[in-house]
Amino acid sequence: MLLFIGERCQSMAVYNAKLVYYLFIFLDIVQGHHRLDPYANVIVGWSVSEAPAKMKNLNIYIEKPFNVSHLRIFPILKESNIGELLCIEDVIQCILGRLLLRHAAHVITGTPWEQIEFKRTEKGKPYLSNPSDTKFGMNITHQGDYVGFASSCTSKIGVDLMRLDKERKVFQQLRKYKLPKNYGNTGAGKTADDYINSMAKSASLNELRIMRSQPTESMKMTMFYRYWCLKEAILKATGEGILDDLSRIDFQVDMNDRYRPGCFLTSTTVLLDGKLQDQWIFEETFVDGNHAAAVCKEKALPRCCLFRKDPEAKLFFSKVSLENLLEYATIMNPLADNATAAYENLINKPRKTF
C-alpha cells in the first residue's frame, strides 16, 4: 500500500485499491489511479510485542522489521530528543510521527528526503522550514494504539486521538473490593465523576453540565474524552499552546448526532469567551471502536485546493504501513558501529505499565 500526496498540494493519489480510503472519494480515475484531494487523514497502528521488530495492532501488521537501519533514516540526534525518551512505546511513537511528517513533506513538495527540515514555533508546534514556500499544514498525534496524521491546504490544522478507556470496567470490579484510589496506578477507585471533576477547571459550565448529565458511567467517560479530544485539536490548530483558562473554550455539540464508531460528525461548533468562532470546522470520527479522533481545520480553503469542490466529503482515517513511510527514506544520520549500540539502547528501554 502506498499513500502519495501530489506535488505542491495540487493533487493526491492513492495507489493500490487495497488501501482503506479515508474520505468520501472525490474521484477522477487517471490511468487506473485514484486522484484525490490534497487532504489526508492517516494512522499507523502499533503496539510493542516481545521486541520492537514486530509491531501490530488489530489487523495491521508491519511486516518489515523495525530494525537498526530505521534509526538512521532521519537525524534523530540532531533534531529531536528521541534518545532521551524513557519508554520504548514513546520512542516508537515519536519515530513514527517523524516519519509521517517527513514522508508527507517529501511527497507533497518533491523535496529530497535529506533536504527536508522542520523547526518549531515559540509555542513548540513543528512546521516545515525547508522548503520554506509551502502553504499547507500538517499535524501529528499519538495516543493509545495509534500514531495519527492530518494535513490541509492551509497552515492551521490540528488532530488528536483519544483511547476510550474501556478498562475502566475492570476498575469498577476492583472497587467492589474497596481498594484505595489509584491502587497499583490503575485508577481503580476513580469514578467517571472523579475524571470529570479533574477536568473541571479546563471545561466550560456547559461542557460540565453535558458530561455530568449522561445516564451511565460509560457515556460520561465518552463525553469526557470527546471534549478533551476537541480541545487538543483546536489548540494544536491555532499553534498557541495551552491557554491559561481552557474553560474559555466552550464546545457546542449536537446531542442528537450519535457519537459512536462509524460516525462522521461536523456539526460541532466552538465559542471563545462566549463568541462563536465560525472560522473552524471540526471533524469527529472513530479510528476503531476504542479510539476517537478529532480534526480541527480552517473552513476557508484556497482556490487551488480541490477539496473546495466537495466540502461535504468525508475524510475517514486510513491505515498505512511502515513500508509506505520508508519508501523514499535515505540515511541521514550515520551512526557508529552500524547503529548497534543505538538499537540495543532502544530495545532495552522499559515498557509502560499502563
TrEMBL record:
<dbReference type="InterPro" id="IPR055066">
    <property type="entry name" value="AASDHPPT_N"/>
</dbReference>
<dbReference type="Pfam" id="PF22624">
    <property type="entry name" value="AASDHPPT_N"/>
</dbReference>
<protein>
    <recommendedName>
        <fullName>L-aminoadipate-semialdehyde dehydrogenase-phosphopantetheinyl transferase</fullName>
        <ecNumber>2.7.8.7</ecNumber>
    </recommendedName>
</protein>
<keyword id="KW-0808">Transferase</keyword>
<dbReference type="InterPro" id="IPR037143">
    <property type="entry name" value="4-PPantetheinyl_Trfase_dom_sf"/>
</dbReference>
<dbReference type="GO" id="GO:0019878">
    <property type="term" value="P:lysine biosynthetic process via aminoadipic acid"/>
</dbReference>
<dbReference type="InterPro" id="IPR050559">
    <property type="entry name" value="P-Pant_transferase_sf"/>
</dbReference>
<dbReference type="Pfam" id="PF01648">
    <property type="entry name" value="ACPS"/>
</dbReference>
<comment type="similarity">
    <text>Belongs to the P-Pant transferase superfamily. AcpS family.</text>
</comment>
<feature type="domain" description="4'-phosphopantetheinyl transferase N-terminal">
    <location>
        <begin position="79"/>
        <end position="153"/>
    </location>
</feature>
<dbReference type="GO" id="GO:0008897">
    <property type="term" value="F:holo-[acyl-carrier-protein] synthase activity"/>
</dbReference>
<dbReference type="InterPro" id="IPR008278">
    <property type="entry name" value="4-PPantetheinyl_Trfase_dom"/>
</dbReference>
<feature type="domain" description="4'-phosphopantetheinyl transferase">
    <location>
        <begin position="157"/>
        <end position="296"/>
    </location>
</feature>
<dbReference type="GO" id="GO:0000287">
    <property type="term" value="F:magnesium ion binding"/>
</dbReference>
<dbReference type="GO" id="GO:0005829">
    <property type="term" value="C:cytosol"/>
</dbReference>
